[in-house]
Amino acid sequence: MEIELKPVFDKIQKSIESITMNEFMLSREEQGEHAAKVEKIIHDNTLELDIKKSQRVRAEYHSWGPLEALMQDESITEIIVNGPKHIWYEKSGKLHSHPDAFFSNITFRNILERISRDAGLQINVDHPCADGSFQDFRLSMIGNELTQNGVHLSLRRHPKNPWTFEKLSSQGWCRVSEIPLFQTILEQRKNFLIIGSTGSGKTSVLNSFLGMMPPNERILAIEDTSEIALPNTSSMKLLTREDANGLLPPVDQAQLVKRALRLRPDRIAMGEVRGAEAKDFLMALATGHTGSFGTLHAKDAHQALIRLEMLIQIGAPQWSLQAVRRLIQLSLDYVIVTEKNSAGERRFKGAYKISSLEDYGFILEKLSGLSLQPEF
């Protein structure tokens, strides 16, 4: 569509450039007048187009351009923009190339500014990356300073209905017979990590565990961008802060873990363990906050524990490896592994119990759906 509408766009753009400067440099009143003038130019130049093509031209100037259709399609789980001409989207676990594109670098830049403004984000030379929430999406933006083909934009859709294990099972993630295992882990207040590679569904599984929570338990959720669905009104969420303008001090997950401990949590849910907060999180688990859990990027259970050791040492570089492993043994009970296979399908790969700590490392025991016995 972008190619056949290009002559129409060029004519419209030439007329617009003759009447205005950057719309984001205008006052609110001037923006209203500017929008009316732009709309008249678009109207006069799209009279011979059908409704669909006319709407597409308007979207380039008033909303999200070629992203509009993708954002409205709820079966699309992620939108990836590599500059104005290369747009991809994920559907059913597979990437597809979008046949449409932005009409020009100018409209691409303007749409990025609209998205940034609505999301309350800003990227610049000093802070070329930004993450946040935009409408129903988790947003990640990287500026020209760090890329070779223009600003990169990634929009990952938040599901409108919280995930449950029944819903995951219906989509083939696990068997119905395995769901009682997850329920028992929660009821016995075991501490665990949900691990997997990028896009393997870790956050969906975490939200499914939260969906099993008793209604009278207070959950403190900690994350960088808002993806966790709180299970009840007694629970609360703490979000990190990074100010691109450098006016406000940053607040990281390690600080939020310490703050959470003062807020009477029954359990702590960590959106993703990725840095020095690993030490503080596991210390909290080891000192009485049982039944807590989080996610971690790793391919398998053994790799997850090795990566966890490294992250703890970031927060406690003076600790010996033996002390780090001892903390993991005291604070963590299970590792739940999810994966995304070559067909794009997300699957439950297994649950592993940390059975013992030996001189050479951890011994893991893989569980079946019936191998976790009730505690009395």
Task: Provide mean pLDDT, rounded.
Answer: 89
Portion in helices: 25-40%
Stretches with pLDDT under 50, minimum 5 residues: none
Number of strands: 14
Shape: elongated
User: What is the oligomeric state here?
Assistant: single chain
Largest sheet: 8 strands, mixed
Q: What is the C-alpha radius of gyration, as a whole number of Å?
A: 24 Å
Order of helices and strands: HHHHEEEHEEEHHEHEEHEHEHHEEE
Strand content: 15-25%
Give structural attributes.
376 residues; alpha/beta; eight-stranded mixed β-sheet; six-stranded antiparallel β-sheet; 12 helices; 14 strands
Could you walk me through the main structural features you see in this protein, from its secondary elements to its overall organization?
- With 376 residues, this protein is an alpha/beta fold.
- The protein has helices at residues 6-17, 28-45, 51-62, 67-72, 105-119, 165-170, 179-187, 202-210, 253-260, 277-286, 301-315, 321-331, and strands spanning 76-82, 87-91, 94-97, 129-134, 137-142, 152-157, 192-196, 219-223, 236-239, 267-270, 293-297, 334-340, 346-358, 361-367.
- The strands form two sheets. An eight-stranded mixed beta sheet has the order 9-8-10-11-7-12-13-14, sandwiched between helices. A six-stranded antiparallel beta sheet has the order 3-2-1-6-5-4.
- Helix 1 runs antiparallel to helix 2 (28-45) and helix 10 packs across helix 12.
- It starts with 5 loop residues before the first helix and ends in a 9-residue tail after the last strand.
